[in-house]
Amino acid sequence: MAAAPRRLEKAGWQDAGVRALSGGLTRQLLDEGVRGAYHTLDIIDEKLLESGSARLSRTVELANLSSIIGNLLAGVITAKSDGVFQRAGAHKYQDLRAGKAGAENIEIKMALETNAPKGHLAKEGKYLTARYVLCSDDGAYKPKVRGEVAFIWELRFGALTATHFNISNTAGDSGKTAVVNSEGLKALKIVYFDASRCPYGARSAYLKKLAAQPALISGVED
Question: What is the CATH number of domain 10-211?
Answer without folding.
Answer: 3.40.600
